Amino acid sequence: MPNSAAKRSMVIGVLRVLIVIIAICCLGLQFSAIAASAGVASKCADADSMHWLYAVAAVLIVACFEFALVPLWRLLTLVEKRDVFSGKAMRWVNHILVYAGIEGMLVLAVMVGQIWLSPSRFLMAAMGVDGQMFPYVVLAVGVAALLLIAAFELLMVVMRSLLMQAIEQRDELAAVI
């Protein structure tokens, strides 16, 4: 059994290092979104003033992913303490679901804004796409992102229901013992 505990501890340590690396990469992505916005705006004189709104949207979309790393860290802590099935994990799983839902709404808002409300010359220049193809490119990228978020949400809902069943079975077993 000590070997199993050592392996679990090692895996949790590696996962925590990966979470830190992912968080640092997300910060870099957020800074690069702001820098790219400023760069395209300076190179493209006809870029609209909405470029900062899209930079903020990109930062917020990545921030939702970053915020979901905190509950993931907390879940790893519960695994380390062997306390996952006490019910405390449900709160953190629900946080992850909320952040993914917010991220999906932000992606949908940007997609709708770009296709139907006000296509941005800034994004066209940033993506290197002409005006006729731009709505289709935005639709394709947006739908792909929404499908990935929906798949993640469905996976998390299934995992949450499995966690709830495991907690119920643990409570029943504790009552029997």
Set out the fold topology:
Elements: H1 2-43, H2 51-80, H3 88-117, H4 121-127, H5 134-176
Helix pairs in contact: 1-2, 2-3, 3-5
Give a structural overview.
- With 177 residues, the chain is mainly alpha-helical.
- The chain contains 5 helices and no strands.
- The longest helix is centred in the C-terminal third of the chain and has 43 residues, at 134-176.
- The protein is elongated.
- It starts with a helix and ends with a helix.
- The model has no long low-confidence stretch (mean pLDDT 86).
Low-confidence stretches: none
Order of helices and strands: HHHHH
Shape: elongated
Rg over alpha carbons? 21 Å
The total of helices stands at 5
Helix content: over 70%
Features:
single chain, 177 residues, mainly alpha, 5 helices, 0% strand
Quick structural summary:
This protein is mainly alpha-helical. The protein is built from five helices and no strands.
